[in-house]
Write a structure and sequence with these properties.
This protein is α/β, with parallel strands linked by helices. Helices cover 33% and strands 24% of the residues. The protein folds into 3 domains: 194 residues, Rossmann fold (3-Layer(aba) Sandwich), CATH 3.40.50; 189 residues, HUPs (Rossmann fold); 98 residues, GMP Synthetase, Chain A, domain 3 (2-Layer Sandwich). The chain has 15 helices and 20 strands. Strand 1, helix 1 and strand 2 form a beta-alpha-beta unit. The protein is globular and about 80 Å long.
Length: 524
């Protein structure tokens, strides 16, 4: 973004929950960016000009030979700095304190912090005065090393049984450091700590979707000029919001290509075409290539082969139909900020890479196109907020995530047209049930999967030998972890009865109550 916004820099030392820091700050309308420690130097600091800095946690020890370290000059910037877990340890290590490992002071999981006699605005709203010496607050710890000696100028504001310097501050330099993780929900008042920090740092809270919309439109126009743009439209939240935003910026210079691979949900293709071609009057190519995809998938049961087959065909089909536009210079993608963060880690950052993302490479280079990625600074919930700002119908904005390979990975084993038709109808009944009971918005993702097995059943006076269906519903914040949704037995019984009665080909229904981890959200 431009320098018009107050900017906060998060230096990532490899914590798996660094993204949660950014989410907490964005909720406070503070613009922030995450950058790996090894990509932040003095020149970067000068150009970024942060109003404050947060040092994340991480798996390292400050005494490792190649321990991650902050950039030179960071502590001389004259801006407030907050160190979290490893961020606290590296702060003390660099500023003259001492860090030790082992000796029975490691803490993992829930702990309780009590205040010292010293008070500071960084802890406003944390410890109720009426609790006096008995005051304590739950936090989440995850550390092996610990600070054993404070750096000069620091004071202790809070302690835990195994972390005598759990909350520390150097009030004169506006440096703060905590041993726990305030970004996770296991630290109930963690959001308040961030709120106090950004208030002390003087942030205006000017990160709004209205401002983002105006700025994004200006940037799209500046980047694209008079050139043509093509956009792969799936009908999901990300591509839909990206398409509407870009169309608002450049109108008929945008052409959307909607690849129908025959693996969509019931009525989905018709909904997408009606929404974008008819309602928004966008230039839209509806590429119905279902026969091509389903023929290529015939006899394929390995999930990875399915994904690769669909991915390769998608690129080929998209290229073919995009060529119909003629003279396009840019490719629009709905890349989100978590994709960018994980892809940066993949190419040299400190975090362990969980997955790579198709949105961040491959297709643009193959087609010789430049990228337009107007959502690459946003988290998923911010994309939904931008969609509302743009006036998209709630039915599109609030849709559950849907995988690129579509129903192919909800059909374990061999894919057939018969199984896909059964699955579409069963999934539609399931989602209808969830909506009827007012549960749709409580659930991150819900879907049905047709299992590679047939079971014996009795319907009326006859024997059946039909497919079994698995129902899945999870709650999550970002999809990285998930819990199964605790439907009532009444709901599950009613839903199973409706599916078996209304969908020919299903005679048994299961509910998947596996969390992630150890499972994944999708079956394949």
């Amino acid at each position: 973004m431009t320098q018009a916004h107050d900017r906060l820099l998060i230096i990532d030392f490899g914590s798996q929950v660094t993204q949660l820091i950014a989410r907490r700050l964005r909720e406070l309308k503070v613009y922030c960016e995450i950058h790996p420690y090894n990509r932040v130097d003095q020149a970067f600091l000068r150009d970024f000009a942060p109003k404050a800095v947060i040092l994340s946690g991480g798996p390292a020890s400050v005494y490792w030979e190649s321990a991650p370290m902050p950039p030179a000059g960071l502590f001389d910037l004259g801006v407030p700095i907050l160190g979290i877990c490893y961020g606290q340890q590296v702060m003390m290590h660099c500023l003259g304190g001492q860090v030790e490992g082992g000796h029975g002071t490691a803490e993992f999981g829930k702990a309780y912090v009590s205040p010292t006699e010293l008070t500071h605005p960084i802890l406003a709203g944390w410890f109720p005065p009426e609790d006096g010496p008995l005051a304590r607050e739950q936090v989440w710890m995850s550390h092996g090393d610990h600070v054993s000696k404070l750096a000069p100028g620091f004071q202790v504001l809070g302690t835990s049984p195994n972390a005598p310097f759990a909350i520390t501050a150097d009030p004169e330099r506006h440096f703060y450091a905590v041993q726990f993780h305030p970004e996770v929900h296991h630290t109930p008042k963690g959001a308040k700590l961030f709120e106090n920090f950004v208030r002390l740092a003087g942030f205006r809270g000017d990160w709004t979707m209205g401002a983002y919309r105006e700025e994004a439109i200006r940037k799209i126009r500046e980047q694209v000029g008079e050139a043509k743009v093509i956009c792969g439209l799936s009908g999901g939240v990300d591509s839909s919001v990206a398409a509407v935003l870009i169309h608002e910026a450049i109108g008929d210079q945008l052409t959307c290509v909607f690849v129908d691979h025959g693996l969509l949900r019931l009525g989905e293709a018709e909904q997408v075409v009606s929404m974008f071609r008819d309602h928004y009057n966008m230039r839209l190519i509806h590429a119905d290539e279902s026969d091509l995809f389903l023929s290529a998938l015939e006899g394929v049961s390995d999930p990875e082969v399915k994904r690769k087959t669909i991915g390769k065909l998608f690129i080929d089909v998209f290229q073919k139909h995009a060529a119909e536009v003629g003279g396009a210079t840019f490719l629009a993608q709905g890349t989100l900020y978590p994709d960018v963060i994980e892809s940066v880690s993949f190419s040299g950052g400190p975090s362990v890479t969980i997955k790579s993302h198709h949105n961040v490479g491959g297709l643009p280079e193959k087609m010789g196109l430049k990228l337009v990625e107007p959502l690459r600074e946003l988290f998923k919930d911010e994309v939904r907020a931008l969609g509302r700002e743009l006036g998209l119908p709630e039915a599109f904005i609030g849709r559950h995530p849907f995988p690129g390979p579509g129903l192919a990975i909800r059909c374990p084993g061999e894919i057939t047209r018969e199984k896909l038709d059964i699955l579409r109808r069963a999934d539609a009944v399931y989602i209808d049930q969830i909506r009827r009971h007012g549960l749709y918005d409580e659930i991150w993702q819900a879907f049905a999967a047709i299992l590679p097995m047939r079971t014996v059943g009795v319907m009326g006076d006859g024997r059946t030998y039909d497919y079994a269906l698995a129902l899945r519903a999870v709650t999550s914040v970002d999809g990285m972890t998930a819990d199964y949704y605790p439907f009532s037995h009444e709901f599950l019984s009613e839903t199973a009865t409706r599916i078996i009665n209304e969908v020919k080909g299903i005679n048994r229904v299961f509910y998947d109550c596996t969390s992630k981890p150890p499972g994944t959200i999708e079956l394949e």
